[in-house]
Specification:
By secondary structure, the protein is α/β, with parallel strands linked by helices. The protein contains 11 helices and 13 strands. The strands form 4 sheets. It has a 7-stranded parallel sheet, with helices on both faces. Helix 5 runs parallel beside helix 6 and helix 7 crosses helix 11. The longest helix is centred in the N-terminal third of the chain and has 20 residues. The radius of gyration is 19 Å and the shape is globular. The mean pLDDT is about 95. The chain binds UDP-4-deoxy-4-formamido-beta-L-arabinopyranose.
Length: about 350
């Protein structure tokens, strides 16, 4: 069965393509290469032995999307990752984010609706919760005012899909609200490839240890948490990738309870910034150079998932630990830096 993965050369997309191929799916990747590299295709095929079909397309061009689906009418499902995802950048360039994340979603949905069996997995984010009132965060927790245009595009994206599902009973969608994806495939053939200075914690840690960055800044140690640093739910990217395959299979096997479902994808465990640093030091044997600095604008104190619905209804749970994630992230960094 043929599955389309948009943004399939990105960090989460590429790991999901590997897991789809492991399950016997034929995968077609669309990517505009704005935040990824064509070499990732070789990484994927060196793991699975199969090179996915790849088309470089800008999904902001409606005609490209339409002609793509005219060529691929036998697609049974779409996993839609393609989006810009840098929170800070979205604050500086909101229109770029609204255009790239929402126009592309609308063009994809219009085309997918014409397919016989349209099954759609949407890459959403725990960002939609903002600073939730209580932990762990349930799917029914209120969606709060977005902290950034990026987060807003995820909230609006979910609303667009919800409203589409209401008028298209044959259209089936699942939104996966990711917590913090980290780590890399154990083969070190694929992993996270941040462009420029990493915004996220884990690539900044591994680049500091690799000598690319002088020192990690821990953004604030005066938060109301046990060790004063922020808490997040760090999910291994391979566990996250597997969740996409399970969600797609749920729709293909018509096991969904309604034609729009939402699931939290996290470990259900919160880890502080210091605990992540300690995990890195434990698995690498390296003492990390870091210093406490001012808080980062827009950071929330704590976010970790209630995963009971994902475990019981979706039938998925994370298998890999924080140490597994930090170990694979470090192996990946050493591989790409030839250390
Ligand atoms: C984690 C913690 C920082 C960098 C973002 C997006 C979210 C998702 C994941 C896309 C925070 C601290 C970080 C550093 C630090 N992306 N930190 N020094 O902000 O939780 O989530 O990425 O879907 O939508 O919002 O992730 O890795 O940036 O930060 O101290 O150099 O690490 O303050 O507490 P975040 P992050």
């Amino acid at each position: 069965m043929k599955v389309l993965v948009t943004g399939g050369l990105g960090f989460i997309g590429s790991h999901t393509v590997v897991e789809l191929q492991n399950e016997g799916f034929d995968v077609v990747i669309i990517d505009d290469l704005s935040n990824s590299s064509i070499e990732v295709l070789d990484g994927i095929s060196s793991i699975t032995g199969f090179k996915p079909v790849f088309e470089k397309l800008d999904l902001k061009e409606k005609s490209s999307v339409v002609s793509f689906f005219e060529k691929h009418k036998d697609i049974v499902g779409v996993i839609h990752f393609a989006a810009s995802k840098a929170v800070g950048e979205s604050v500086k360039e909101p229109l770029k984010y609204y255009e790239n994340n929402l126009n592309t979603l609308i063009y994809m949905l219009k085309s997918v609706l014409d397919l016989e069996c349209s099954n759609f997995i949407f890459s959403s984010s725990c960002t939609v919760y903002g600073q939730a009132d209580s932990m762990p965060i349930l799917e029914k927790a209120p969606v709060k005012a977005a902290e950034s245009p990026y987060g807003n595009t995820k909230q609006i994206g979910e609303e667009i899909i919800t409203d589409t599902c209401k008028v298209a009973p044959n259209f089936n969608a699942i939104a996966l609200r990711y917590f913090n994806p980290i780590g890399a495939h154990h083969s070190s053939e694929i992993g996270e490839l941040p462009i420029g200075v990493p915004q996220n914690l884990v690539p900044y840690i591994t680049q500091t240890a690799a000598g690319l960055r002088a020192q990690l800044s821990v953004f604030g140690n005066d938060y109301p948490t046990e060790d004063g640093t922020c808490i997040r739910d760090y999910i291994h990217v391979v566990d996250l990738a597997k969740a996409h395959v399970i969600a797609l299979q749920r729709l293909l096997e018509k096991k969904n309870d309604s034609n729009y479902e939402v699931f939290n994808i996290g470990t259900g465990k919160g880890s502080s910034v210091l605990e992540v640093i300690e995990s890195f030091e434990r698995v690498s044997g390296i003492k990390l150079n870091y210093a406490y600095t001012a808080r980062r604008e827009g950071d929330i104190v704590s976010a970790y998932a209630d995963i009971s619905k994902s475990n019981k209804v979706l039938g998925w749970e994370s298998q890999l630990t924080l140490d597994d994630a930090m170990r694979t992230a470090w192996c990946w960094e050493k591989t790409i830096r030839k250390l």
